[in-house]
Design a protein that fits this description.
The complex is a heterodimer of chains A (124) and B (147). By secondary structure, chain A is mostly helical. Helices cover 52% and strands 3% of the residues of chain A. In chain B, helix 1 crosses helix 2 (31-58) and helix 3 runs antiparallel to helix 4 (79-146). The chains are: A mainly alpha (124), B mainly alpha (147). Strand 2 (93-94) of chain A pairs parallel with strand 1 of chain B, so a sheet runs across the interface.
């Protein structure tokens, strides 16, 4: 009885029990099978991009999904290529110029130079 | 329709996460570089969409499908993306199929429930008869035990 009184005047101790769980402020994780990360980019945003093209009438759900996944692969690829440039400069922080160098150096990224010019309103 | 440029950009948090996971630990990325990659990704989607749309139009279709996008990747010289994309597509199709079957199963269960409720009524009547028989047997056993 004395122990109970000593532990506090009836106020619940939240640190001890499972009631002290921190409320997760992050959005819920997608319910995909472990190891199978289907897509991290929100399909709604990708769909908005696709619809921005005036020539496109409709796009199937699978097409949107593949575009999202391709965009992820693209980000990984360009980040790695840009990193090679930063490594040469013995830096550990990727800078804008590393990206510009990668775009110039890699043929596949040539479209970025052209498109960035033709769609300034979208990408300022 | 006035669409803000931000709406056509992909979420920064996700882009940052993808970049960090692609690079070795301890490597950072400046804000300008990250923002440039994010915009590049948007341009990539737009360019890929346009290429894919050409394939759809060639096939006289109005809806872009997965094959159109894969063809676009090859056209854009991103053949190395094709295999991982095909794998991702198969996984996606399996997941969609699973979801569809799950919802169909739920519907079947719901229908079954309404059917089985009717069946239970007749089953209860049979059970009553069985219970009577059991009671008789128990009485018999008790008599034997007494002896």
């Amino acid at each position: 009885m004395a122990a109970a009184a000593a532990s506090g005047s009836g106020t619940p101790r939240e640190e001890d029990g499972p009631a002290g769980e921190a409320v997760a402020s992050q959005p819920p994780a997608p319910t995909t099978a472990p190891g199978a990360r289907l897509s991290r980019l929100p399909l709604a945003r990708v769909k908005a991009l696709v619809k921005a093209d005036p020539d496109v009438t409709l796009a199937g759900q699978e097409a949107i999904f593949i575009l999202a996944r391709a965009a992820e692969l693209f980000v990984e690829t360009i980040a790695k290529d840009a990193y090679c440039c930063a490594q040469q400069g013995k830096r550990k922080t990727l800078q804008r110029r590393d990206l510009d160098n990668a775009i110039e150096a890699v043929d596949e990224f040539a479209f970025l130079e052209d498109w960035a010019l033709t769609l300034p309103s979208l990408l300022h | 329709m006035a669409e803000r440029p931000e709406d056509l950009n992909l979420p920064n948090a996700v882009i940052t996460r993808i970049i960090k996971e692609a690079l070795p630990d301890g490597v950072n990325i400046s804000k300008e570089a990250r923002s440039a990659i994010s915009r590049a990704a948007s341009v990539f989607v737009l360019y890929a969409t346009s290429c894919a749309n050409n394939f759809a139009m060639k096939g006289k279709r109005k809806t872009l499908n997965a094959t159109d996008v894969l063809s676009a990747m090859e056209e854009m010289e991103f053949q190395r993306f094709v295999t991982p994309l095909k794998e991702a597509l198969e996984a996606y199709r399996r997941e969609q199929k699973g979801k569809k079957e799950a919802s169909e199963q739920k519907k079947k269960d719901k229908d079954k429930k309404t059917d089985s409720e009717e069946q239970d009524k007749s089953r209860d009547e049979d059970n009553d008869e069985d219970e009577e028989r059991l009671e008789e047997e128990e009485q018999n056993e008790e008599e034997e035990v007494d002896n």
